[in-house]
Amino acid sequence: MANLLVTGGAGFIGGNFVHYWADKHPGDTVIVLDCLTYAGNESTIAGVEQAELVVGDIRDTELVEKMLRERDIGTLVHFAAESHVDRSISGPDAFIETNILGTNSLLKAARKVWLDEGSGKPHRFHHISTDEVYGSLGPDDPAFAEGNQYQPNSPYSASKASSDHLVRAYHHTFGLEVTTSNCSNNYGPYQYPEKLIPLFLLNALHGRALPIYGDGMNVRDWLHVEDHCRGIEACLHKGRPGECYNIGGGAELPNMAVIDHICASVDKAMEEIDGLADRYPDAPAAKGRPTDSLKTFVTDRAGHDRRYAIDEAKARAELGYAPSHTFEDGMAQTLRWYLENEDWWRPLAATDG
Q1: CA–CA dist 144, 246 (Å, integer)
Q2: Percentages helix, strand, coil for the chain, rounded to the nearest 5?
Q3: Is residue 132 annotated as a catalytic residue, yes or no?
């Protein structure tokens, strides 16, 4: 049995990790620290018996110290972050506060309890980061490897790059046992409907425009969130302290291909699922029109990176990691989940306007 502290565990990736860990390690206790901002939702982890939610801020160092000490926690998995690039462009300050100062607060607490107080307790601080810290690739450039130079291009990716450097520094300076994983674009259940896949899916169901930045040919590697959770588990069990591991999904696709897949999937679902057209009468597919009629091109986002791609050779070799979901089966599962869990996403879609 073990006690884990999961920061941001009521968010999208963190919440999926809580579900995954509870299923795979039923004897462990998972303490979730989340301040429940717009992207944190208590209902995401409702029903997970091993999970205990503490509503609090990762910048509250004393609170984190108390939790680590009193709950005898030896593993901290750090998801908590501001993560939406558009929001970082309109309001960078929150990203500096959470992603940089918040990570530093956690590191200080972990150092004090696990190292300075001299308990000698085995420990691991795992930090979840992003492939966006590496910058943008040209069409023929090799995929991002862990040794690539950091070249962040948005306030979001710059704040994550800064937090990555802090985690590394706490290992090399103080001896904190850390690992970092840099993931590609996640998708799957419980994703807040500001991100591309849930946004376009819900817009398609409600007959709203599908706003496509630029020419729609920006390329991303798509990672099903369950595969990401498996990669994090492998980092915790097999990762070498001080090392970084790239976790990808093996599905490098232009945004337009993803959007076309969503449109075709909604069209097919309307034909095959009884009563779906009655539930979503504003969807073009409910009226016999193709969903792709909603596609609308908009001005490209400032500093929009053209291409990301993940080289996961190190994770395969050292951790035994490989994605188990193809993009097609992962998207089919994701569509089913959103159609079957309207009670989860509808309040969020309403508040997001």
Answers
A1: 8
A2: 45, 15, 35
A3: yes
Residue that has been written with the tokens 């810290």 in this structure: 133
User: Among the options 57, 65, 82, 132, which is catalytic?
Assistant: 132
Which carries the bigger pLDDT value, residue 243 or residue 303?
243
Residue 156 known to be catalytic:
yes
> What gap in Å lies between CA 295 and CA 285, rounded to an integer?
13
**Residue 303, pLDDT above cutoff 90:** no
Q: Which of 124, 123, 248 is nearest to 181 (CA)?
A: 248
- No. of helices (H) and no. of strands (E), the chain: 13, 12
Beta bridge partners of 34: 55
Structural domain boundaries of the chain?
A: 3-188+224-249+310-323
Reduce the DSSP state of residue 169 to 3 states and report it: helix
pLDDT band at 155 (very low <50, low <70, confident <90, very high): very high
pLDDT at 350: 61
Mean per-residue pLDDT for 67-91? 91
Catalytic residue among 57, 65, 131, 164: 131
> Under CATH, which number does the domain 3-188+224-249+310-323 receive?
3.40.50.720
- What is the CA angle 291-294-300, rounded to 5? 130
Over residues 139-147, mean pLDDT: 95
How far apart are the C-alpha atoms of 316 and 65, rounded to whole Å?
34
SS3 category, 83: coil
Residue-averaged pLDDT of the chain = 95
